[in-house]
Amino acid sequence: MNMNYREARQYLEDANKYGSVLGLDNIRELLRRLNNPENACKYVHIAGTNGKGSVLAYVSTVLTCAGYKVGRYISPTLFKYRERIQVNEEYITREALARLVTEIAGAIEGMTGEGRPHPTPFEIETALAFLYFKEMECDFVVLEVGLGGLEDATNVIQTTLVEVMTSISMDHMAFLGDTLAEIAENKAGIIKPGTVVVTDWQQPDAMRVIEEKCRKENCTLRTAKKENAYGVTSGYEEQIFSYRCRERVYEDMVIRLAGSYQIENAIVALETVDALRDLGYEISEEKIREGMMTTHWRGRFTILQKDPIVVIDGAHNEDAARTLRESLTMYFPEKRMHFIMGMFEDKECEKVIKRTASLADDIITIQTPGNPRALPAEELAELVRKYNPKVEAMSSIRKAVRESFQRAEKDHVIVAFGSLSFLGSVVRAVEAVEYE
């Protein structure tokens, strides 16, 4: 029976009971039964702790501007479920999603009928993405790792052109390891023999792991070096920089993504695009400039409005919280701030709070909706209280946003941050306040 869109979404929702399992055996078997659609495309595969989404956005936008058909696979999403699978920034259609989930369900029925485990939601979504990208005949797919790297479902691919390592820090320790070297080793598990690897400049323990993996796999390693960026002009509406990249110099590049860390993400993206140019792909400097300037990526230090300024940011670990604090103090050094926080309980909650809470006049905590990992608002408020006594737990995002608008004067800043999963709700709540 062919599913409609609503039935397909329900099928994916019901698969949540199978949880999250690391390992590639199940996804390989599922893809085998679907005639291995993942082999039809060339990939830029991105792992790391922070910055994956922004680098994906820059690289895929540049490639699209250069005239290629480009698939994107991202998670989590802020606004719509279909946002996670895109071609040239257009979401997978409802019709295609329903039809392809029907096909996948048939393959899964065969697997479970033989006593094999039922694939997890992420494995099903990954198979769905590969089927769609094959059907759309994508020239490139820019693929974001879900968790870690080595045993992530995306790591079944064998036709990678470039692997990208964004900034690596302590995160998901329960799954990836207790030390930076262990986490880096897991993330470097996506590196395939004879490919090009682009890495952000890492802490020494992580850098050693990546260098050793590249030597072992006979890969070309390119490092995005901050010291090669110069002429930097920062602002929350526009940032300008130049970058010396091996044989080429990219002068006066303009980006519209805000945040102190976006120059770093942008030079990782430039190294990646430059590597593709060296592999023979036609990407003119004009199209690189156009792509970098037109890249947008909501949820990473995104300014939603002014008077008062409203910022959303997915800072959910200590490293991201540090860069959020840097950005807030750089752009708004004299302004009063009001925070809205929502976090998952398996994240570095107290470290995030310790880095940020002292900046705020007051803080409202909420429980991120629809996720069993969400930390209750009252528990989050108790953690905040150690660092800022002006904290209040609220029962809904809409109520928190309304209250923040009542507290904020025109020259104040409202900052909503923590789990990416609640930022879409914040955007809708801010829009609702504007129209009240």
Keyphrases for this structure?
436 residues, single chain, 19% strand, 8-stranded mixed beta sheet, alpha/beta
Radius of gyration: 22 Å
How many angstroms separate the termini? 45 Å
Helical content class = 40-55%
From the structure provided, what is the oligomeric state, counting identical versus distinct chains?
single chain
Main β-sheet, in a few words?
Answer: 8 strands, mixed
The helix count comes to 15
Low-confidence parts lasting 5 or more residues at pLDDT below 50? Answer: none
Shape: globular
Total strands:
17
Tell me, rounded to a whole number, the average pLDDT: 93
- Going across the major beta sheet, what is the strand order? 4-3-2-5-1-6-7-8
- Strand percentage lies at 15-25%
The class by helix and strand makeup works out as alpha/beta
Question: Topology of this structure?
Answer:
Blueprint (H helix, E strand, L loop, with lengths): L4 H10 L10 H9 L8 E6 L4 H14 L4 E4 L11 E3 L2 E2 L2 H20 L7 H15 L4 E5 L15 E6 L7 H4 L3 H8 L8 E5 L3 H13 L3 E5 L4 E5 L5 E7 L2 E8 L6 H17 L6 H10 L7 E4 L3 E5 L4 H14 L5 E6 L6 H8 L5 E4 L11 H9 L5 E3 L3 H11 L5 E6 L4 H13 L1
Parallel strand pairs: 1-5, 1-6, 2-5, 6-7, 7-8, 13-17, 14-15, 14-17, 15-16
Antiparallel strand pairs: 2-3, 3-4, 9-10, 10-11, 12-13
Helix pairs in contact: 1-4, 2-5, 3-9, 3-10, 4-5, 7-8, 11-12, 14-15
Describe the fold and architecture.
- The strands form 3 sheets. The protein has an 8-stranded mixed sheet, with helices on both faces. The chain has a 6-stranded mixed sheet with strand order 12-13-17-14-15-16.
- It has helices at residues 5-14, 25-33, 52-65, 94-113, 121-135, 173-176, 180-187, 204-216, 262-278, 285-294, 318-331, 349-356, 377-385, 397-407, 423-435, and strands at residues 42-47, 70-73, 85-87, 90-91, 140-144, 160-165, 196-200, 220-224, 229-233, 239-245, 248-255, 302-305, 309-313, 337-342, 362-365, 391-393, 413-418.
- α3 crosses α9 (262-278), α3 packs across α10 and α4 crosses α5 (121-135).
- The longest helix is centred in the N-terminal third of the chain and has 20 residues, at 94-113.
- Helices cover 40% and strands 19% of the residues.
- The protein is an alpha/beta fold.
- A hairpin with a 2-residue loop joins β3 (85-87) and β4.
- The mean pLDDT is 93.
